[in-house]
Structures are given as C-alpha cells and as structure tokens.
Amino acid sequence: MTFQDLNLNTPLYNALDDLGFTVPTPIQAEAFNVVSSGKDMVGIAQTGTGKTFAYMLPILKNLKFSTQETPRILILVPTRELVVQVVEEIEKLAKYINVRVLGVYGGTNINTQKQAIADGLDIMVATPGRFYDLALSRVLQLKNIQRLVIDEVDVMLDLGFRHQLINIFDILPERRQNIMFSATMTHDVDEMISEFFKSPERVSIAVSGTPLENILQSRYNVPNFYTKVNLLSHLLKDTDTFNKVLIFIGYKKLADLLFENLEKHFHDECCVIHSNKTQNYRLRSIEQFRNGDNRVLVATDVMARGLDIDNISHVINFDTPDYPENYMHRIGRTGRAEREGSSILFSTDKELESLEKIENLMNMTIPVIPFPEDVNISDELIEEERLVIKERNNPIKKDETIGPAYHEKKDKNKKENLGGSYKFKIAEKYKKPKTRGDKNYNKRNKKK
Ligand code: AMP
C-alpha cells in the first residue's frame, strides 16, 4: 500500500513528500478509513508506530477551511512534552494547509493561552487539566468540537486522570467522534471504553505471538504474593546469573509493596518506577538500573514500555498479565540485539486463566520449573488475596448445619423460576400481550 491508495489531497502529498514518507505504517493504513467514517475508534499502538499521523491524516484530509474561531478538533495527551511533540508533528503534516493549531498545558501562564484562543484556532492539543481550566473560564468555546482524540490513554489513566477525563466528556458536545489510542491494554482502559464509547471499532497492529528464539521462557506455580517474594529473593541471591533483572508487576500499590520487601534483602540493589513516583525519581531509577548501579528494577507495564535498556538478563513476571499482548511486550525487553535472555513467569491458581491466553497466543506451553524445596511457602495474604478468598469459600453458604443464612429471603420475595410461561400468565391475566411485538401470545390464543 502507498499513500496514493488513501486518496489524500495535494497539500498532504506535498507535506509527506517533504518528510520523505512514501508508505503508510500499518496503523496508518488500518485507521484511515475508520477515522474517516466518523465512527468511534480505539487504536492499540505504541509510540513510534506512526500513530500521530494515523489520526491526523484522515482528520486533516476531512477538515474544511473555516474562518470560525472555536476549535473543531481536540487532542488530549498526558504530558506537556507530548503536547509539544504532537503540535510539531501536525505542523509538519499541515505545512501546506491553512489550519491553526494550538498546544496548551499546565504550569505556564494561562493568560497567554487565553489570548491565543481568542485569536481563533482549529485544532487544540492539550493536557486534560489545563484544557478543563480553560473550558471553565469560558474563554474556550466547545460547541464546535466534532472530534476528540485521546492519545496514550493508558498513561493518562495510570497517572490518575480518569475523573478529569469524565468531566471533560460531560462538557463536550454529545455528537462527536471519539478516537482513542493506547499502547497497552489495561483493565482501566477497557472499562473506560465500555462506559463512554459507542461500539467503537478496534484497530490494532497484531502483536506477534512468536517470541524471539533467544528468549528462554519458564514459569513457576506459586500460591500467593508473599511466597512469590520468597521465591524471587531466593532467585536473586544468585547475583552472577541474575545480573540485570527487570521485574514486572501490574499494579502500582503492589509494585511499592514488592519493592519494600526486596529492599529488606537487597538493600541498595533495587529501584522502582511507576506513575506515582515523580519524574525525577523515575529518571534516577532508570539511570541507576541502566548503568548497573542497581541490579533490579521493579516496574509497572505502562511505565516500563518507554524503557530502552539493553543487556537485561532476566525479565521476571511477578504476576501473570491478563492481556497476553502485555506478556509479549514484557518478555521482549530481554533477548535484545541477538543476546540470550530469560523470562520467568510466576502464576497463582487464580492466574491460570490468563496463562492459558498467553500460551494460546504463542501456541506453546511455557515449561514449569518445580518449586524449590528450600523456599518458604507463606500463608500470609495481602488484602487483594484475602477479599477473594472470603467470597469464594464463604463457610455460611457451604455448611448447611449452621441453619438458614441470616439474610434468607422473606416469603413474599421467594419467587419460583417461572421461565417463559410467567410472561403468558401475566398476559392472560391482563388479556393483552405484554409487549406490542409479542406474536407468540397471539398464536397461543388462536390455538385455544
Ligand atoms: P509516532 O508513533 O506518531 O510518535 O511516530 C513516530 C515517528 O515516525 C515520527 O517521527 C513520525 O514522523 C514518523 N512517521 C510517521 N509516519 C511515518 C511513515 N508513514 N513513514 C515513515 N515515518 C513515519
């Protein structure tokens, strides 16, 4: 496929020529028609795949020249750096188009931005907080916004922008197209899609299910969090083998808990990154891990994907990711540049379903290593593990000798399962079908 197949216009072709781009990247080819169609879209793509042009090409192609002053396109991104970057990309692509682009973000003088808005614009690129402040100040009129793009929504939700996004959805015109990009699928992202998007079309570049051959994969069955800590500590004692270890864990809170526990045994050898840590802290952690001052880095999926670190000896999946793509991204951090790398996966019984999805994607079974005898099995449970256990093994439900549960239903609420016939009973009683389209009711009555 070439850009000619997308039926763009001369100004766009000229800009692409200047940039030296000749073929659309896969995400650009996939997203073009969906974005053009006006349907809601969710794109799964990482930075570097050309995702900015994936939404900007169809948007710019369809944006008519206008002298109106209020924005028609809103692009929300998580950080100020990304605002600057996206604005630059749009300006390159819109070099021969008469379009006004404005980037706004917090931590800078809001009055200058208000003035720029008053001068008129077509496309606004913003961080959520500053956008909301500007909208509340009423300088920014939203009624003409037709398309909303949320870029890096996984990072946004990870940074705690959920409420701010919901507030923004509330004040935007209802008739609009929602376009969202995320690099990693997470439960937060999934939830947001189903809550706020209208049957969005999903566009993704399929993650290869074929892991690199030079990554040696294995796994352990481990009953709970603290036993995982014990096993990990046992493994990390072998400093020669485990010389640069990236540990993945899905949740920030658990990343902190794991880090605290590791620090007890491996003081000054570990560092941690997730979105609740300050930018400086994160940069310092990454640098210490990169240059070998720290042997172990604990990271969440979303934060770790921007990492570009070579020579990682082991990736340890402290939990089993529920989205198999995340597992592929995780293990791809080792075995780079033809070097041998190892990935070790810890899975509890509860995580076996996720394991199955991963193994299906790769079409292989990850070999199991027997649990080492000299590692202590802990029966201490973390809060998350306790909650589930309570629900599953509720002794009151199981043990009938205890008598009726305290919340047994009152007689009037004890309804037998009447199946479909209940509807007919009601219909007969009231002498009319319950719904207008209830053809079976009429048939049934004719037979009588
Ligand atoms: P992004 O994923 O949007 O951050 O883009 C990554 C880089 O790829 C940017 O520097 C883009 O300018 C560049 N790029 C975007 N589309 C193409 C293309 N079709 N061919 C070559 N490079 C591209």
UniProtKB/TrEMBL annotation:
The entry's keywords: ATP-binding, Helicase, Hydrolase, Nucleotide-binding
Lineage top rank: taxon: Bacteria
Domain called Helicase ATP-binding: residue spans: 32-203
One Gene Ontology molecular-function label: helicase activity
Domain called DEAD-box RNA helicase Q: residue spans: 1-29
Family named by the database record: Belongs to the DEAD box helicase family.
CDD domains listed in its UniProt record: DEADc, SF2_C_DEAD
Family matches, as PANTHER family: ATP-DEPENDENT RNA HELICASE RHLE (PTHR47959:SF13), ATP-DEPENDENT RNA HELICASE RHLE-RELATED (PTHR47959)
Hydrolase among keywords: yes
InterPro entries per UniProt: DEAD/DEAH_box_helicase_dom, DEAD/DEAH_RhlB, DEAD_box_RNA_helicase, Helicase_ATP-bd, Helicase_C-like, P-loop_NTPase, RNA_helicase_DEAD_Q_motif
Keyword Nucleotide-binding: yes
Stored SMART domains: DEXDc, HELICc
Chain residue ranges for the region called Disordered: 397-420, 429-448
Designated name of the protein: DEAD/DEAH box helicase
Lineage summary: Bacteria, Pseudomonadati, Bacteroidota, Flavobacteriia, Flavobacteriales
Ranges for domain Helicase C-terminal: 231-377
Biased composition (Basic and acidic residues): 397-417, 429-441
Record-listed E.C. numbers: 3.6.4.-
Positions occupied by motif Q motif: 1-29
